C-alpha cells in the first residue's frame, strides 16, 4: 500500500541559467511490506538552489518498523557545497558535506561510519530524482531513502 502527500514548488524558466534553479518543498510517505513486516518511509525536504549556490537545504528521511525507527537529516548548517551540471533536458546538482567528520561529531555520533556524504538531485522534465549516498549523517541507519517526485502532480515514488 502506497500513500503519498506532496507539496511542491518548482522554479524553472527557459535558458541555462534558469534551468539551474531549483525551488522545491516535498513531503512523501509510503508503507511497504518487507519480509512480512510493515515498514513506513517518510521524507520531508526543501531544496532551493541557484546554480552552485545553496539558498536553503533541508531533508529528513525516516524509516519506521513496528519495534523501532531510524532517521537521517541534513541541512545547510551542516556545511554544504553544491556543484551543478546541465546536459540537454537534464540538470544535476551534487550536494556534499565540506567536512563530514565535523558534521558527524556535532551531531554526537561517536562510532565510525563511512565519512562520505553526497546527495544527487537530478531534474529531467517534470521529475526530480533524489539519490543519496550519505551514511555520515545517519547515525545507525545506513542511508537516506532514494526517491523521485513528479513536480507537476506531487506524487512520490520510493525506489526499490
Describe this structure in words.
The protein is mostly beta strands and 160 residues long. The protein has one domain (16-158). Helices cover 7% and strands 52% of the residues. The protein has two helices and ten strands. The chain has helices at residues 16-19, 100-106, and strands at residues 21-34, 37-50, 53-64, 69-75, 80-87, 90-97, 118-124, 127-133, 147-150, 156-158. Strands 5-6-7-8-9-10 form a six-stranded antiparallel β-sheet, with no helix packed on it. Strands 1-2-3-4 form a four-stranded antiparallel β-sheet. The protein is flat and about 45 Å long.
Structural class: mainly beta
| Element-by-element helix/strand order | HEEEEEEHEEEE
The largest sheet, given as strand count, sense and whether it forms a barrel, is: 6 strands, antiparallel
Pick out the low-confidence regions. Answer: 1-16
In which order are the strands of the major sheet placed? 5-6-7-8-9-10
The 3D shape can be described as: flat
What helical percentage do the residues reach? under 10%
Beta-strand residue fraction: over 45%
Radius of gyration: 16 Å
Amino acid at each position: 500500500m502506497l500513500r503519498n502527500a506532496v507539496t511542491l514548488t518548482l522554479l524553472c524558466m527557459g535558458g541555462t541559467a534558469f534551468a539551474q534553479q531549483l525551488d522545491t518543498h516535498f513531503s512523501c510517505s509510503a508503507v511497504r511490506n518487507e519480509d512480512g513486516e510493515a515498514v513506513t518511509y517518510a521524507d520531508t525536504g526543501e531544496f532551493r538552489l541557484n546554480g552552485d549556490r545553496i539558498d536553503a537545504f533541508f531533508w529528513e528521511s525516516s524509516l519506521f518498523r513496528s519495534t523501532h525507527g531510524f532517521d537521517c537529516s541534513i541541512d545547510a548548517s551542516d556545511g554544504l557545497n553544491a556543484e551543478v551540471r546541465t546536459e540537454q533536458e537534464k540538470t544535476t546538482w551534487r550536494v556534499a558535506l565540506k567536512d563530514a567528520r565535523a558534521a558527524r561529531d556535532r551531531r554526537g555520533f561517536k562510532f565510525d561510519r563511512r565519512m562520505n556524504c553526497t546527495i544527487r538531485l537530478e531534474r529531467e522534465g517534470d521529475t526530480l530524482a533524489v539519490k543519496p549516498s550519505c551514511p555520515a549523517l545517519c547515525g545507525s541507519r545506513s542511508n537516506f531513502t532514494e526517491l523521485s517526485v513528479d513536480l507537476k502532480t506531487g506524487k512520490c515514488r520510493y525506489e526499490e
